[in-house]
Amino acid sequence: MAWTKRLRQNRRRWAPGHSRSSVAAVALLLLLLWLPQARPVAAQEYLSVYSPRGTFSVPLQEYGGRDYVAILDLLAPLGEVTARQDGHKWKLRFNNVEIEFQEGKIPVKLANRRLELASIFHFQDGRGLVPLSSLVALLSPLLQPPVELHETARRLFLGGAAVHFSAEVVRSPSDSVVLTFTAPVNPSIATEPGRLSMTFVREPLLHPSPSTMNFEDQYISSLSYREAEGVAELTLNSNVPLLARFSSDRKTITVGPVVQIVAQAKPQPAAPLATPASPNPPSSTPVPIPTPNVGAAASGQLAFPPPIPLAAPAPPPVVVVDASHGGTEPGAALSDTLAEKDVVLSIAQRLHNELEARGLHTMLLRNSDTALSLDQRAILANTSRARFYISLHAGSLGSGVRLYTALLPPITPASGMFLPWDSAQASYLSSSQTLSGDIATELGKLNVSSRQMQAPLPPLNHIAAAAVAVEVVPPGADVTQLNSAAYQEQIAGAIAAGVARAQNGATP
Amino acid sequence: MIPRHLKITFGLLLVAALASGIYMWMLKRHERQAPQTAQLQQPVAPPPATGTPLTVALYLADDQQGALHREETSLSLPADPSLRAQSVLRAVIARYTQKDSTHPLPAGADVNDVYIVDGTAVVDLNDALASGHRSGVMVEELTVLSLVQTVAANLPGITQVKILVNGQERDTLAGHADLADLYDVAAVNRAVGQMGGTSSP
Questions:
Q1: How many domains does chain B have?
Q2: Which residue of A has its CA nearest to B1?
Q3: Which residues contact A247 (CB under 8 A, 6 or more apart)?
Q4: Letter string b/e over residues A117-144, b meaning 16 or more CB atoms within 10 A of that residue's CB
Q5: Chain region(s) in chain A for CATH 3.40.630.40
Q6: How close is the nearest chain A Cα to the Cα of B102, in Å?
């Protein structure tokens, strides 16, 4: 048969030698199809800059395998800077010192000196880009020394900006590691079985020597320091679940086994709350994941630290204070160095103390730089069954304080055990407006101007309590006044007095 | 020897692979350049005059006073309600992207589209407006209320407004103003009146 003969011929043609070249051709074809998609999209990287004026970050760009930084972005927060293009030359004036770059060239004229960049200068979209590795040489003549660059970690320290720390094991009243810092700190905290990590984004935390400390402690075995991707990280390794507690000046962090830290914290309701790693549990006391005792596990047993009797459960809070934003969500950039999340956290802590001083038991939804979703905030507030909910915001538009209640459609409030999630606030709108009025009255007594409005501001609609969002604005044109301790105390005091007024006037 | 027809097939496949590779590279390049192009766009102008000139009410935000002001102007509006809503919103945004605006919005801010379904206007804003918007309770509230109030004032029968960004739902405009829920026109009108601005008559 003709077709069987052709088949036999084809089989001969697909002898091993031929199949190798065919496979190679197919592989080449697949490679060509794959190549355009293979290159991963790199995430935007940043250089963290720590200076006496504050902390900020600038984006990095890659050219020829080297990291570059836009010199104008870097210098703008540090002083008076102007730039102009003159043909292939790019002239920059910083605090009356002129620097001249040339596109595609390595030499740079700085006043009367000549410097060499590590690689060529780039000019793109009106931005002059210099190699990251040349920053020390370039900035040293311009800024107050020292200029220290941790290139691999992408951290730049200017003018001696630094935070140091020491660590010691304390045996009494319970085993814990006490970290003492030279300036207030506000790290993000995360826990996982066997470790607690503190990430310092804004603080110029410098490495200790050596970078790993070992402890002779039954629970906490070591502390290690690491810096990378523009942040510093301290990690405590342990065989039990750990919890961190901040001192009121935020210069000391005490880390110890959960049960011991919680037991210490209970008799001191006015002290800042322990910081939960996960915001999910709807309680003021964090509940970390228990970690088995590793040493005991090795011998075939699972064991937990000796149980310590806990105090009776705390009464439900009267007030929930919600410092908006946090973590990776900074809120409004009030200035180059001032983020809304930091201002509101500071006001929230002051408000917490003011409310507790008035005998109003208060729950802070976040007490560190932690991210919480809007729904998590509403769930935590609702499950706490607090009577009042205060959400704190900060802004730079206008002056004084703005008080917002929920913007809801005119609906008949639901009754019964369950409330609709989208309009849970409807049943409480009248008491929210009373609370807003009481806070406005107390602000007026201190001659602080205020406005009462409605706003589409989540999560107000979902709160089943008298709920007011307070937007604190600087008293004058200077936005840095938002960071003034005196102004924050004044606002926190007035809000607390307003809540106390509403509490006294509220019908049970 | 590889048969001739296989050589031709592989040759054609190689050419096709190279061509698709170049096409994808061009697509990626275009995608990378797209956001920059959006940022470089000039402020949007009101749409070209089509239809009969009509007096429309624009609710314009004023950052300093923290209020909305009603302003009447003449616009040539198309008959289609969706296009009509788009036209009045573009007129508002054009005012905000001018140099001396009382409520500046980022350059390139625009409305992609407006859909009207059973008394609900779905306003699809572009990414340049949302991504470049200033963050803050008051500043975001002014933008949202200004757009909702302007649509409601010029399209009778609209009772609710939903705002999308590039066709997608998002939680907030720039960290504060709610975009997840529908805006009730009556509630917005009441809030605008309470702000001290001019609410709908």
A1: 1
A2: A18
A3: A253, A254, A272
A4: bebbbbbeeebbbbbbebbebbbeebbe
A5: 319-505
A6: 12
A417 touches B at CB < 8 Å = no
User: Among A117-126, A222-231, B27-36, B73-82, whose mean pLDDT is lowest?
Assistant: B27-36
CB contact at 8 A, A426 and A359: no
A437 at B interface, C-beta within 8 A: no
> Does residue B13 fall inside a structural domain?
no
How far is residue A408's CA from residue A421's CA, in Å, rounded to a whole number? 12
Residue A220 has pLDDT above 70, yes or no: yes
Residue partners of A225: CB distance under 8 A and separation at least 6: A207, A208, A211, A212, A232, A233, A234
**B186 has a chain A CB within 8 A of its CB:** yes
Q: Where are the beta strands (DSSP E) in A287-353?
A: 319-323
- For residue B149, what are the domain limits? 52-195
Identify all chain B residues contacting A422, using CB atoms and an 8 Å cutoff.
181
The class of domain A46-154 in CATH terms is alpha beta
Which strands make up the sheet holding A81-86, listed edge to edge? A81-86, A89-94, A97-102, A107-110, A113-116
**DSSP letter assigned to residue A205:** B
What residues have CB less than 8 Å from B174, skipping those under 6 apart?
B130, B133, B134, B135, B136, B140
Domain presence at residue B134? yes
Which residues are CB-contacts of B30 (< 8 A; sequence separation ≥ 6)?
none
Give me the percent of chain A exceeding a pLDDT of 70: 78
- Answer yes or no: is the ipTM higher than 0.90: no
Q: What are the tokens at A314?
A: 């705390």
What SS3 state is found at A336?
coil
C-alpha distances (whole Å) from A173 to each of A261, A302, A394 are 10, 26, 39
Contact A456/B135, CB-based, under 8 Å?
no
pLDDT in tens, B143-160: 999 999 999 999 999 999
Looking at the domain covering A319-505, what would its CATH class be? Answer: alpha beta
Which residue do the tokens 């990626």 mark? B28
Closest residue in A to B40 (Cα) is: A125
A12 or B144: which leads in pLDDT: B144
Give the architecture-level CATH label for domain A165-298.
Sandwich (2.60)
B5 in a structural domain: no
Tens digit of pLDDT for each residue in A358-389?
999 999 998 888 888 898 899 889 988 899 99
Determine, for residues A407 and B191 on separate chains, whether the beta-carbon distance falls below 8 Å. yes
The alpha carbon of residue B135 is apart from the nearest alpha carbon of chain A, in Å, by: 5
Give CA–CA dist A377/A325, Å, rounded.
10
Is the distance from CB of A79 to CB of A164 less than 8 angstroms? no
> Which of B178, B175, B174, B176 lies closest to B161, judged by CA?
B178
Measured CA to CA, the distance from residue B99 to residue B155 in angstroms comes to 29
Which is higher by pLDDT, B42 or A86?
Answer: A86
